Amino acid sequence: MKEIYERHDEREWKLGFERFKRKWERIYPDIIRSWERDLDKLMVYLKYPYPLRRFIYTTNALERFIKEVKRRVKVIEVFPSEGSVDKIVYLVVEEMNEKYRSRRLKNFERIIEELRGERRARYGSGEIKIITNEKEFYTQKS
């Protein structure tokens, strides 16, 4: 599968998928059918700059989140209500958001202009630069 996800364009991706399909279709037919049905969705990340792709197609952040919720819930034997579980999930989300807020993707400064160009191409050039106490960001005019 890694061979598929490391492809640079749609044509190469589909060729990699065909090799994968030939090898595994007899053993995992349901998975292959699922992939075939959703090929367009599975290849969406190819539309983004190459250095950003691995952050899009990886599930590391989601896996880390689930692991952290399990770790927190494991030490509590009984929950008084469903709201108690919701509160733990909420607190884990808040904590992880705080950690990720200050985190920068490797080489992101190199591709930010390319992403802005893609956004302008898709939505027009009506963007607004907003500067807050902590940082600056761009958003689209309605």
Descriptive tags:
single chain; 142 residues
DSSP strand content: 5-15%
The level of helicity is 55-70%
Gap between N and C termini, in Å?
Answer: 41 Å
Overall body shape: flat
Order of helices and strands: HHHHHHHHEE
Number of strands: 2
Largest sheet: 2 strands, antiparallel
How many separate helices? 8
Broad structural category: mainly alpha
Flag low-confidence runs. Answer: none
Task: Kindly report the average pLDDT value.
Answer: 83
How are the strands of the biggest sheet laid out side by side?
1-2
Computed Rg:
20 Å
Commentary on this structure:
This protein is mainly α and 142 residues long. Among the domains are: 1-47, no CATH class; 108-140, no CATH class. The chain is 64% helix and 7% strand. It is built from eight helices and two strands. The chain has helices at residues 2-5, 10-24, 29-37, 39-42, 50-57, 60-74, 82-101, 108-123; strands spanning 127-131, 136-140. Strands 1-2 form a two-stranded antiparallel sheet. Helix 6 (60-74) crosses helix 7. The protein is flat, with a radius of gyration of 20 Å. Required for the transposition of the insertion element. One of its GO terms (biological process) is DNA transposition. Keywords: DNA recombination, DNA-binding, Transposable element, Transposition. InterPro entries: Transposase_mutator (IPR001207). This is Mutator family transposase.
